[in-house]
Amino acid sequence: MEIIINELIALADREQLRIESSISDDSLHCLGLFVESVRVLDFIMLGQPGASPSDKISFSAFDISMVETGWNLATSMLLKEVNFHGFPMRQSTAELRKGLISLLYQLGIVIQIRRTVEMIKTGLINVDKEGDTYTFSHTLEAKDQFLDQLELGAFERMEEKLKSSGAKYKEWNLVNRKEIKNTFWKTGNFMSVKHESDFSSYKIQDLDSHLTPLIKQWNSGKYGIMMGYDSTPKVDDHFLAIAAELTKEWRDESGINPNAKIGNVSAAEIMNVAMIVVSFHLKHIHFAQLASKISRNFNSTKFINLESDK
């Protein structure tokens, strides 16, 4: 087993070295590729807006997962310090996008090999080798990893059912979880229901009407329309509230104790950073989707950071 593990690690290292050696050393060129990699992720995550059915690339869930997984490693290769003022500008073409998708996918495979090696070491995956072919299979212990997720899914479905039941569910009186303490000395059967999160007061109801005036357009000439946007504390709070709910769910699902330490850094601090990064991504995606919608309403003007060959 140890021999196979070392072979897989060496395979991932060789592939990464091969990919790195194929990328130009010019820092400005790398920065341009980095910008395009961000466009590519937007383009895929938003469903390839503006592309005709014949030009759309077919992605499986695994393909998308590999492209997303490869982006962090691509960033470490492409995001370099450059000694110039301004912003690198190049046309986003179908050929360039396909090249970046291939790069991200290959790097995603490198990361997946390393993750698989760690799962082999922890006994979650078995591996056999015959000739040059590796065969992977789940161990019995790996199946236990899905039980918590199944239980959480059942709990969420129960919560939704209770919320739609009104004041009573069968013989139980339903009470807002925040007000459950008021029932301690009352007679009857009570069950708490969480109707809203602790962050609900920070959310904006008519979000698009707040975001639309913040979107900026800049005509770059023959390269299309660039999209930019401002923000406000209220908008930032909205996406932070959503990110806080998501990261709390992820923390609970993964069983991370906020007081756990990795070196001198607490798990709570890591989750706080993750929450902020997630909020930025959520905000950017919503602005990009809204900009794409606006562009279609105004003579099909395209935003180059979403997709554009013109």
How would you characterize this protein structure?
By secondary structure, the protein is mainly alpha-helical. It has helices at 2-21, 27-45, 61-78, 94-121, 140-143, 147-163, 207-211, 233-254, 267-297; strands at 125-130, 133-138, 168-169, 172-176, 190-193, 215-219, 225-229, 261-262, 265-266. The protein has nine helices and nine strands. It has a three-stranded mixed beta sheet with strand order 3-4-5, with helices on one face. The relative contact order is 0.11.
Write a brief caption for the model.
By secondary structure, the chain is mainly α.
Strand order of the largest sheet: 3-4-5
Rounded to the nearest angstrom, the radius of gyration is: 24 Å
User: What would the average pLDDT be, to the nearest integer?
Assistant: 82
> Tell me about the biggest sheet?
3 strands, mixed
Count of structural domains: 3
Give the SSE order as H and E letters.
HHHHEEHHEEEHEEHEEH
General shape: globular
| Portion of residues within helices | 40-55%
Which band does the percent of strand residues land in?
5-15%
User: What is the chains' assembly state?
Assistant: single chain
How many DSSP H or I helices?
Answer: 9
Number of strands: 9
Given the helix and strand composition, which structural class is it?
A: mainly alpha
Distance between the termini: 53 Å
Contiguous low-pLDDT stretches (5 residues minimum) are 299-310
